[in-house]
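User: Second chain of the day. Same drill as before.
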Amino acid sequence: MQLIAFIPLYNFRLIPYLYDAFKPFLVAHLVLTNETFIFKDMQDDYFNDNYDYYWLNVAKLGQALVLWIVMGFALIILNIIVGIVYCAAPKKTPFGKYMSTIISQFKFNAYIRFYMLSYFDLVFFSIMKLVEDNNTSQSRKAATVASYVIFVLSIVIPVFLVTLVCSRFQVLKIKQAKASFNTLILKIDKQSRWRLVQSGYFFFRRLLTAMLLSIPLDSPFIFLQYVFILMSSHIYVLYLVAMKPYQSAMLNNYVIANETFYSALIIAVFIFSDSTPELNIKLGAGVVLISSIFLLIFANLIMIIAMLIMGKNRLKNQINMAKMKRAEKELMEEEEEEERTLRQKRQEEDFVKLHDEVTNLG
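Assistant: Same format as last time:
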């Protein structure tokens, strides 16, 4: 949703009111109002003309960043409250066991999930401030220093998390071993290390997207915005189809559907922009654009309903059955590969033996 919300900000213009169709996807940033309540001295500052075109000033973006910080403090306060209740609750009662489960999520899943949700915004705001390079006041200088820190951490933390998950690959199959970092590899099949690429791609895609959004309009590399946003989506679809990284067919099909609708949305937005003056083409692109948004919402709604109907136990059984089928298939493939290797080795030995016999006869 964050990626979709920023699509109009790429280097092409849409009808300004069309951006309102994307505003519901900006709930995470809470940029849903045309008024700003803080940083009012920056209401007339815009990163470039494209942001001015969509009335997205620096004050709104700064307000969104502050809201993320407030949400981070709220998470810490919630952690403290849950910790106090956990310490006070009797450990052997059902409530005590429930609180034990809740407090365990703060080590470290709740913080990792919050960081994953705020990652795109943090990177985007920090890079935008660094590109702007305006340090005329003490507050702007402080913002620049903070931007450097955030940007460096935006590279270091994902690398650390992905490295940690990959290094613990052998023990990730144990439920207790993966519990602290389960949000990074949620519902991903841990039988192959290649499927753990999913978590790394999550961060990599958002990092590059934020960097490309900050390219100046007069840059000769502005075309990379179009190339990357299309290629990253198509590559991800191919990866999903080839690797099927999730634990069941239903989960894989759900994510593939989401990414397919997102790809259609990207193409429709590009066509619906000022890239072509043909009205008929724009009308068709408009239908595809609105349809893609509704299909994205519909796919998520259907998935929620399906999971509610199936229930936790039935979903677990489905995942276990899918794991067994995948394990049997991979075992058969390994056996076939071993047979091919042995057959090739025998053929090589027979060829060498035949060659020696012919040499001896000669």
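The chain has a mean pLDDT of 79.

User: Great, on to the next one.
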